[in-house]
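Appendix B.2, paired examples.
Example (i):
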Amino acid sequence: MKEVRILEIKQSVFADNDKQAEQLRQELKEKGVFLLNLMSSPGSGKTTTLMRTIEMLKDKLKIGVMEADIDSDVDARTISESGAKVIQLHTGGMCHLDAEMTRQGLDGLETEGIELAILENVGNLVCPAEFDTGASKNAMILSVPEGEDKPLKYPLMFSICDVVLINKIDVLPYFDFDMEKCKEYIHMRNPQAKIIPICAKTGEGIAEWAEWLAEEVGKWNK
């Protein structure tokens, strides 16, 4: 039987993306644009958290938002009500954004004068974690109803994030969710990750998150 050749292309694809991401990151640094890549599973509260975040920071920073979705402009329409500059990105069925797609989004957003650009990535705990977007920092939202074991099931996502927001803490009494165990699991994957419990619905914890984000933007633009 003729031997079957197996070509491993995954590494080279990621390597090329990593080069583009690093180049984009350097360009954004030179322009004074901080790019936040915000990830989570669907329904975790990304858009509501963004609305709260913009409300807290809109008088301090010029903000632009890129809403990535497979198809629809529901979230972009919601964010537009905040007064922030916003565009919708359709991924054509892809479950993530890579560096080149992010660059196209930033070009469409027109970042002149923008200090904080936020990419609301496609709702998914797997694919978005595999591709460096060129972001200054990565953040993710884990909601209480998803369970505290998600860091064990999706290790890459938690390992690449600088900050993890644990959302929907208002429903903690109704779910079997162990906050301390969750924090332990997150730090197993990423000892340096900052963890901030929040409730986007009520605004609890958003001030701490917004303060962290504003400080990071300040450091980036020094």
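Example (ii):
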Amino acid sequence: MAKYVAAVDQGTTSTRFMIFDHEGRVVSVEQKEHEQIYPKPGWVEHDPMEIWERTQEVIKGAIAKASVDPRDMAAIGVTNQRETTVVWNKKTGKPYYNAIVWQDTRTDTICEELAKDGGQDRWRPKTGLPLATYFSGPKVKWILDNVPGVREDAEKGEALFGNIDTWLTWWLTGGPSGGAHVTDVSNASRTMLMDLATLDWDDEILGVLGIPRQMLPEIRPSSDPDLYGTTPAGGPVDAAVPVCGDLGDQQAAMVGQTCFSPGEAKNTYGTGCFMLLNTGTEAVPSKSGLLTTVGYKIGGEPAVYALEGSIAITGALVQWLRDNLGLISQSKEVEDLARTVEDNGGVFFVPAFSGLFAPHWDLKARGLVIGLTRFANKGHLARAVLEATAYQTREVLEAMNKDSGVPLTALKVDGGMVYNDLLMQFQADILGVPVIRPTVAETTSLGAAYAAGLAVGFWDDLKSLRQYWQEDKRWEPAMDEAKRGELYRNWLKAVDRSKNWVD
């Protein structure tokens, strides 16, 4: 009998492979970073072949580290940085161009042109999304329009498109030798090409963008008993293991946090910050700047939808402090630096590096630091960097409360930044509700593993997974209401000044 389920977790800055046992405990993990490529201001790329190489390395590394027999793995799930767009040749497996990352803003003129007919919400009733550089559809159009030979190959059915989940699933299940060209409903819902009601690609939108339907992957359930494919002998797994779970990283975290009931929410703190609220089998339109998205689909069950607040820059701001300014040498040092001061000293940092995402959707906004005096030092800047994440989360939470009509009583959190006690305490303070971290904080990988395991009967059903969720730490709000209100008002003033900067 199989002992384990595993997950490939391909994120914006790194790739990890995690192996879990039946109780959802981590058996082994291996992780490696990949290069961030910035060809021009606002352009962000990854090398898809480097990502596939890193994926192979972490799979082999995690298996070797725990001496796991791959034949003891029941299934593999995939979770991924969403919206990051790859187009590659079906015969060779070679990308035509680097992956265009979700943070990339080069498609701003495409989005502006599209908005001339129907405004920014032109396709929101169908897709749940505003016209924004964030999503995959305009990125595919950019590649088709700007990279020689791609459109011709796409028309012939030789060029394939996928988000990173599709790219890795194709390679994991054989690549040019019959790899499965599939995606799941959660990733498809982030392309701006899928109709939320039909869960199929929308021909009208494809026609407007000039995207040939034959280059798109087949849309499948997030947990698929019919399997996407199996890993071949001689590959990085080197055994026939079903690949049958696929979720965008934030939806995977929602599953890993067992937010299976309408009204349950989670917030993931990674490169960006993403809060998802389960709205059940109904797609709830947002009136407050949130996204309507697919949460997950288990086999033949109806799809479950979510409201999402997407924040572009949170953990990436700490990396910026490290890599661009050199104020710290490792990301974890930001907490110690921030603790050298009692408060932010009046300094606020709005990290609108790629514009403002939810709930503002101002793609012409840019980052700013404001409130500087001679008193301010690098400790205040570090503190402002951390606090920016908490303020942005409150903005999203307030929008979520408005749309759902259900005030949140506690926030489940996960991701790399939740081990920063200073940030988590400030998050509880500025929200005025408890913040709760689970025992397994890397719930993105766990959610993908759950999806794969459910598909092959390793776990019985969603309900049975709740027993494995355990609280690790809780932060209670300790700030008085007057102070909370003053800080948040100043934050909103700073955000207002960052808007509409780019002509």
